[in-house]
Amino acid sequence: MPALSEVLTALDALWPAERAEGWDAVGTVCGDPAAQVERVLFAVDPVQAIADEAVSLGADLLVTHHPLYLRGTTTVAASTVKGKVVHTLIRGGIALHVAHTNADTADPGVSDALAGALDLRITGPLVPDATDPHGRRGLGRICELPHPMTLAELTAHAAARLPATAQGIRAAGDPERVIRTLAVSGGSGDSLFDAVRAAGVDAFLTADLRHHPASEATQSVGAVPPALLDAAHWATEWPWCEQAAAQLDAVSDRHGWGLRTHVSRTVTDPWTAHAASVPPTPTHTTGAPR
Ligand SMILES: [Zn+2]
């Protein structure tokens, strides 16, 4: 059985901490480097439900995509939400390690897993990492669909392939438009519209699209603007957990560690309900604009 320090070295090799954004908080949050590791749980969010799941699983290490503390704190008292997570993990003998923006830009990274879940063929990064001599690392991925689909079909395809959430998938654009090329970016991607336009793709799938950036991205003079698909943030990043677990399995096999990796299926997207609006019905013409 490997020591936590050995497993952390392997995780750092997969997602080097120095490739994280300057504002990010990646790496090991808690854990004794000398502790032995057998069971590892992968999840998107280090929330209480996931900490509890790690305890009932008997995990020794929890690896999450999102940081527990993005900014500094002066307390880990169990009377605080995040402090309770820390207490739960330490009492359970469970280390917590975070791979966030360093996993976003990795090869393979978060968007490779998202593209894989959608059966897409990746042609390159959406925003290449200038320091990668192979041109494969970077934010987002530009992809080709396995076969052309209408926007309506692609929206249904994404809803069927990504893990189920209350939000599902919403789309912006002509539902009958034929989509052949798609940019994807796991997590909040509305800062990437310039790159999406420059890539000339038919559509862009990401999460957390806000009114103004989405509205502006769907208007244009001349070139046809990309159609947009907006999925639940958690759903776009969950496929990375399976990919990451498989990567650690491969390392474990190479070293003969015998690690047992698990992927949490607990939906931690904060949105828990959704109702489609009642379709507009034809109304009488009194007061109609002239
Ligand atoms: Zn995220």
UniProtKB/TrEMBL annotation:
Quaternary structure note: Homohexamer.
Record flagged with keyword Metal-binding: yes
Source taxonomy: Bacteria, Bacillati, Actinomycetota, Actinomycetes, Kitasatosporales
Annotated InterPro entries: DUF34/NIF3, DUF34/NIF3_sf
Record-linked NCBIfam families: YbgI_SA1388
UniProt-recorded name of the protein: GTP cyclohydrolase 1 type 2 homolog
Top-level division of the source organism's lineage: Bacteria
Ranges that cross the membrane: none
Gene3D superfamilies: NIF3 (NGG1p interacting factor 3)-like
The family this protein is said to belong to: Belongs to the GTP cyclohydrolase I type 2/NIF3 family.
Region described as Disordered: spans on this chain: 270-290
Species of origin: Streptomyces ramulosus
